[in-house]
Design brief:
Keywords: Electron transport, Heme, Iron, Membrane, Metal-binding, Transmembrane, Transmembrane helix, Transport. InterPro entries: Cyt_c-like_dom, Cyt_c-like_dom_sf, Cytochrome_c_Oxidase_Subunit. It comes from Caldimonas aquatica. By secondary structure, this protein is mainly alpha-helical. The protein has two domains: 20-68, no CATH class; 87-266, Orthogonal Bundle (Cytochrome Bc1 Complex, Chain D, domain 2). The protein has 13 helices and no strands. It has helices at residues 17-44, 53-61, 65-68, 95-104, 109-112, 130-141, 148-155, 159-171, 188-191, 203-206, 223-235, 245-250, 255-266. The chain starts with 16 loop residues before the first helix and ends in an 11-residue tail after the last helix.
Length: 277
């Protein structure tokens, strides 16, 4: 055989420097990608449960969880809420329902006040939309909103009890100021939101005019309560907002913005001495 036509491979020491640099760059890029994909990105997700590098690789490859967890897949996070809002929840109730609700509400007065106006760091319920009260009580009852006292109280309520309580609180006079309107000088987040950060204006859902079905009236709510709830939504501690709407908004809010919004709504409390009867 004529060896003149046999291709030869140059020794590695004789290969072009650029080729060696390309291989080194590719190896470096691969290493950085693995670190970002399997170490850094998972670590910044609040709902990520670290199970080691091997588990991360298996998840990325689509391997069934039971193969690398000893046959038991990790428990899925509970859903934020299973309540489906229906217009029927907002229909007026008869006097009997309101009366039964008033009796049941005797267990609620220590925190929510004798007439639904709290003197502690609990939400005001006087005149609250009935579907809001129904949803929150059902979420407490089924563990989708966490509070030791409220969960214990809601656990013993039937669905009829919950509807009666909602009817009673909705029937109470609204001992509060007029609803927020676009004519006021409002904080920016309340009036126009922050579109570039995917924050809708508060008034578009919580306004007395543009109230979105199922969202609470928050005028006059205790300031510390509003701050606590916004922070809970921001951290993901509270998860019972449908489709994660409030978590999406609050996640982008700064501490200063949370304080500003809470202070604005809290200042709209009823004048001193004015209570529902």
């Amino acid at each position: 055989m004529d060896e003149r036509h046999t291709p030869r491979t140059a020794p590695s020491s004789q290969r072009p420097v650029g080729w060696r640099r390309s291989v080194a760059a590719l190896a470096g890029l691969t290493a950085v990608s693995l670190l970002v994909g399997f170490v850094w990105l998972p670590s910044v997700h609040e709902d990520f449960t670290a199970e080691g590098l091997w588990a991360s690789i298996c998840r990325a490859a689509g391997v069934p969880a039971r193969w690398y967890t000893g046959g038991t897949a990790p428990a899925a996070a509970p859903p934020g809420t299973q309540v489906v809002l229906a217009r029927e929840m907002a229909r007026p109730r008869d006097a009997g329902s309101v009366g039964r609700g008033a009796t049941l509400a005797l267990n609620c007065t220590m925190c929510h006040g004798a007439h639904g106006m709290s003197t502690s760091n609990a939400p005001n319920l006087a005149g609250q939309y009935p579907e809001v009260v129904i949803k929150q009580l059902l979420d407490y009852k089924h563990g989708h909103r966490v509070n030791a006292v409220m969960q214990a109280l809601a656990a013993g309520l039937s669905e009829q009890d919950i509807r009666d309580l909602a009817a009673y609180y909705a029937s109470l006079p609204k001992a509060r100021t007029a609803p927020t309107t676009y004519d006021e000088t409002l904080p920016a987040l309340v009036r126009v939101g922050a579109p570039l950060r995917n924050i809708a204006p508060c008034i578009s859902c919580h306004g007395g005019i543009d109230q979105k079905f199922g969202t609470p009236w928050i005028e006059g709510m205790p300031r510390d309560y509003l701050v606590a709830q916004l922070r809970a939504f921001r951290s993901g501690e509270r998860r019972n907002d449908p489709q994660g709407v409030m978590r999406t908004m609050a996640r982008q809010m700064t501490d200063a913005e949370i304080e500003e919004v809470a202070t604005f709504y809290a200042r709209k409390a009823a004048p001193a001495g004015v209570q529902g009867h």
